[in-house]
Write a structure and sequence with these properties.
mainly alpha, Acyl-CoA Binding Protein, 5 helices
């Protein structure tokens, strides 16, 4: 199972708005963590200046991305899947039930 395949399944699960652990929705802090990691994966390290602190949502998103520094895409993918496993330990099982293709570990 590749890191990228696991990340793509985790991304689809989060984007689908699937509830977190035990049916609880993801908190805003968890959503910001996923957002920052997603931006790091798609765009690389934060390369924009901070928006005004008066624009609270945009500033919070910028902070979530900027705090990741220069971690590489592969590490960000691992952290994304890891954050989802922490938020919802049974996410792979729930994702499969929701029709999301989840990679399986090879027994080779």
């Amino acid at each position: 199972m590749s890191t990228e395949d696991l990340y793509k399944a985790a991304l689809a699960y989060v984007q689908k708005g699937t509830p977190g652990n035990d049916g609880a929705e993801l908190s805003n802090m968890q959503k910001l963590e996923f957002y920052g990691l997603y931006k790091q994966i798609v765009s690389g390290p934060c390369n924009t200046k901070a928006p005004s602190k008066l624009k609270m949502v945009e500033y919070a998103k910028w902070q979530a991305w900027n705090k990741l520094g220069k971690i590489n895409k592969e590490e960000a993918m691992k952290q994304y899947a890891g954050a989802l496993s922490k938020a919802d330990p049974k996410w792979q099982e729930r994702a499969a039930k929701a029709g999301i293709a989840v990679p399986v570990k090879s027994s080779l």
